[in-house]
Write a structure and sequence with these properties.
Layout lengths: L1 H31 L4 H4 L1 H8 L5 E2 L3 E3 L4 E2 L5 E7 L9 E8 L6 E6 L7 E7 L5 E9 L4 E10 L7
Parallel strand pairs: 1-9, 3-9
Antiparallel strand pairs: 2-4, 4-7, 5-6, 5-8, 8-9
Length: 158
């Protein structure tokens, strides 16, 4: 008889704990999504991942619509129009989405033998945000592009 009481108490304790964890997770998401909090640190994140310096808004082409049909599976083609010669090439491309929970999305490394930088991958966006692409040359020069992409609530645009 005592075993049933212990089992019932364990179940009750389990459900209380699970409920508390669920509430904490929900509140944590609210705190983490305070508008502007991630955006305020995006420049520091870019400097940390790619390097510091003035970003010239040039050389990068991103062929995506301004309204996402599906924020869960966005096609992200990136072309960098820059020579890929032994002493003058793009060595890194990084992608950031300001309003994503983790704004640093992707990074790619290149060598002169890579040929023209031409990348395509799938990107997930939770909501409307700026997408930033930053390319770094072997000399340390930074090139960038910022494009605002609208994502309808629920991840689909209509």
């Amino acid at each position: 008889m005592e075993n049933k009481d212990i089992l019932a108490m364990n179940r009750r304790g389990f459900f209380r704990s699970a409920g508390a964890v669920g509430v904490a997770a929900a509140l944590g998401g609210v705190v983490a999504s305070v508008p502007g909090k991630v955006s305020a640190n995006i420049d520091a994140l870019i400097a940390e991942q790619v390097g510091q310096g003035t970003i010239t808004m040039d050389k990068i082409v991103v062929d995506i619509p301004e309204k996402a049909e599906n924020g869960a599976m966005m096609r992200m083609p990136i072309i960098v129009n820059h020579p890929m010669e032994p002493n003058n090439y793009i060595e890194r491309v990084a992608v950031f989405v300001d309003e994503n929970p983790k704004p640093f999305v992707a990074s790619y490394t290149f060598v002169p033998e890579s040929g023209q930088v031409n990348i395509e991958f799938r990107l997930k966006m939770a909501k409307t945000s700026n997408v930033r692409v930053v390319a770094k040359s072997n000399s340390g020069a930074l090139f960038g592009l910022t494009k605002k992409i609208e994502v309808a609530e629920g991840g689909c645009s209509g």
